[in-house]
Amino acid sequence: MAEKNGKLGVTNKQIRAIYAIAREQGISKERLEKHIKKKYGKESISDLTLQEASELIDCLRQIEAVNEDRDKNGDGNKKIRAKITRIEERMAEIEERLMKLEVRYEKILSKLIDDIEIKQGVRIAEVEREVRVIRGMLKEYFKKEEEHEQK
User: Fold this and answer.
1) pLDDT value at position 151?
2) How many Å apart are CA 23 and CA 78, to the nearest integer?
3) C-alpha closest to that of 35 among 51, 24, 19
4) Which residues contact 70 (CB under 8 A, 6 or more apart)?
């Protein structure tokens, strides 16, 4: 247990309990983290104080009690909540993979654009060289023409 700003920090046992209860109740890690950010203004569960973590566990236990009552009355379905949680977790994994792919494709696209710019630069340099050669040839031609006319 670490001290943060004069307050004791969340324990590993509390973190495990929060994730376990949340998962059991169909609350994905992403939803839980959004709630923590909104309610406590913290970026991560590990940033919570001991008191905030206790409060969150109490809140999750209340949700657990409500869901148990619903399940007993036939108004809720634990299996559906568990499947929704798995779906949300899978979607989060897919979103993360897509973001990585997007970064990878942006790098590839950037490299292709750089390659095109380099090739265009090389082509422009080649054209400029050819223009200089042609100018030189024209100067030489007109110089000879001028000399020929002077004779």
Assistant:
1) 67
2) 11
3) 19
4) 76
